[in-house]
Amino acid sequence: DGGITQSPKYLFRKEGQNVTLSCEQNLNHDAMYWYRQDPGQGLRLIYYSQIVNDFQKGDIAEGYSVSREKKESFPLTVTSAQKNPTAFYLCASSIVEVWGNQPQHFGDGTRLSIL
Amino acid sequence: AQSVTQPDIHITVSEGASLELRCNYSYGATPYLFWYVQSPGQGLQLLLKYFSGDTLVQGIKGFEAEFKRSQSSFNLRKPSVHWSDAAEYFCAVGSYQGGKLIFGQGTELSVKP
Prior knowledge:
Radius of gyration of chain A: 13 Å
Number of strands of chain A: 11
Order of helices and strands of chain A: EEEEEEEEEEE
Largest interface: A-B, 31 and 23 residues
Number of helices of chain A: 0
Oligomer: heterodimer
Shape of chain A: globular
Number of strands of chain B: 12
C-alpha cells in the first residue's frame, strides 16, 4: 500500500546534538512538508519542498534544516540551534497543482524529546 | 492574510448525540477547504474536502461539512457520534502559495458513554 513512513517513532536528543528525522513516501507525490505540533498550537509548517533539490522555509524554520535529493525522501534535521525541540513532528506529501490545493497525506509522526 | 479559526478548543458530547464542529476561514478567493482527524499519537487522516460545486460535502466515517460563503464557515457535522469518534479535529484552508495548507488550532472531541 502507498503511504508515508516516518522513523523513528520516538527520538531522544542530548544537549548540543543534531538529530535527523526520516520521512519516506511511495505515493509518487512531488510535494513534501514538515510540521511541528505542540499542544494547543495546531500544526506549524517548518519546511516544504515542491520539487527535488528545492525547498522553502515555512513559518518556523529556525533551528531546522532539510534536504530533498530524492523525490521519495525529505529528511528533517533538528539542529542544536533549536532550543526547544520537544514536540511531535509530522511529515506530509501531496500532488502539486498550479492552481489550488490537493489534500496532504500524513505519516504517523515522530515524537522528539530532550534527555 | 489567510487564516483558520476553530473557536472551540474542547467539546464533549454524549454517544449517539449530534455533533457540529465550527470552522471559520479568511481567504480572498474561493477557498479549498479540508477537515482532518487525528487520534492520539497518530498522523492526520483526511475526512473530507471542498473544492467547488455542491456546498454540502460528504466524507468518510459518516461526517459531512457545509460550506457557507456568506459566513466564511465550513462546519463539520455528524448526526450520531460514536465513542470511536473521540479525537482531535483540524480544519484547514489552502493558501495562495500552491500546495501549502493553513491549519486551525484544532478541536478536541470527547465522547461520554
